[in-house]
Amino acid sequence: MKNKKDTLITLDNFIDDSLYNKKHGYYMKKNPFGESGDFITAPNISTLFSEMIAIWVISFWEKLNCPKKFNLIELGAGNGEMMRVLIRTFNKFPQFKKSCKINILEKSELLQRTQKANNKEAKIKWLNNLNRLNNFPCIFIANEFFDALPIKQFLKKEKKWYERNVKFVNNKKLEYLDIPFDMQKFEKEINFKISYNQNFIEYSPLTTKYLKTIIKKIKLNNGGILIIDYAYLEKEMKNTLQAVSKHKYCDVLNGFRNSDITYNLSFNLIDKIIKKLGPCSSLSTTQKGFLTKLGILNRAEILSKSMPFSKKADIYFRIKRLIDESQMGHLFKVMFITNHKNKFKLGF
Ligand SMILES: C[S@@+](CC[C@H](N)C(=O)[O-])C[C@H]1O[C@@H](n2cnc3c(N)ncnc32)[C@H](O)[C@@H]1O
User: Fold this and answer.
1) DSSP state letters, 156-217
2) 107, 111, 328: residue to mutate for ligand 1 pocket, most atoms within 8 A of CB
3) How confident is the model at residue 19 (pLDDT cuts 50, 70, 90)?
4) Which of 19, 106, 116 for mutating ligand 1's site (highest number of atoms within 8 Å of CB)?
5) Whose CA is nearest to atom 19 of ligand 1?
6) Higher pLDDT residue, 1 or 293?
7) Please, are residues 347 and 294 in contact by the beta-carbon 8 Å criterion?
8) Which residues line ligand 1 (CB under 6 A)?
């Protein structure tokens, strides 16, 4: 962007540069997780979250008739904390452990190094392309992965569609600029009518690209994907773009390359996309519903029985953050996509 007075880029390109610019991108230069970082994710709140995911994965593998070899793929593994607890739990199930080929898809080299440091003893394959997976059944896990992918925004004004762009004025000041957009042509290109009954659209081309590969793998080799993310179920899409720095919301443009930019997934849109790629089936629920059905409270009770009060209180305080309706319990949703013949329902 040097030596030019004004530069204009689409919102998804802006987010991509802000988060994933090779040298200056937020996720490429910083480990943002934890109390001392910018935000905290469920695996870093309580190990019980990852234990529940481990139990879900093992049960799903059983439902797939315990394949002797299968791929477990974590998409966007952050600081590797969830994988650490998954593997610790898997170690208690030797037959499962022997069958499981563990993979991580991670874009940030810095975070790959953190993940390796957090999982020193483990046999993990780091991927940069899902097409390189072996042809075994695949179980994909995506906790706060899709909300970190760049999105486009489209808005309708007086029956006309506009695409949101970001303008770098004198390469210093940043502002939004909405530019007329040929929605019909775009929908032809993507072969999908995203504008039906909408006045505002958030669409991630990269999410569609990943879903295409994942559904192809599931159809070919069996398996499924578990998505846990900021999401909503209503049909009408809305503007959910946000940025976070030091555990507080901040301005998306002011936070360029120094804050986490995210959005809330429309599960309705994802459902439409995967049904088009199908045949496959999907189930969705809240994080509260999912973790409660998997027995997180029973597990906490067993674990804390002989603990002193302070430790017991800490366990329940952390679980409350995960399942309370005013905290992550409702804001986070869970979606399970699988082969349409598979009737596995645990957690839903
Ligand atoms: C919000 S963090 C979530 C981390 C972790 N799942 C957790 O819950 O703590 C998003 C993660 O996805 C990674 N990521 C983002 N885009 C990616 C891409 N296109 N391919 C692989 N990893 C990506 C980021 O580097 C980061 O590790």
Assistant:
1) EETTEEEEEEEEEETTTEEEEEEEE--HHHHHHHHTS-TTTT-SEEEE-HHHHHHHHHHHHH
2) 107
3) very high
4) 106
5) 107
6) 293
7) yes
8) 27, 33, 41, 43, 76-78, 82, 105-108, 111, 143-145, 148-149
Distance 306 CA to ligand 1 centre (A): 37
Indicate the top mutation candidate among 145, 146, 213 to test ligand 1's pocket, ranked by most ligand atoms within 8 A of CB. Answer: 145
Q: Give pLDDT, residue 5.
A: 76
Confidence of residue 4 (pLDDT cuts 50, 70, 90): low
Q: What is the pLDDT of residue 258?
A: 95
Q: Is 127 exposed, middle or buried, given 0-12, 13-18 or 19+ CB atoms closer than 10 A?
A: middle
- Please tell me whether residue 272 adopts helix, strand or coil conformation: helix
Reply yes or no on whether the pLDDT at 263 is more than 80: yes
* Main-chain dihedrals φ then ψ at residue 255, nearest 5 degrees: -90, 15
35 has a pLDDT exceeding 90 = no
User: How much is the average pLDDT of 39-52?
Assistant: 96
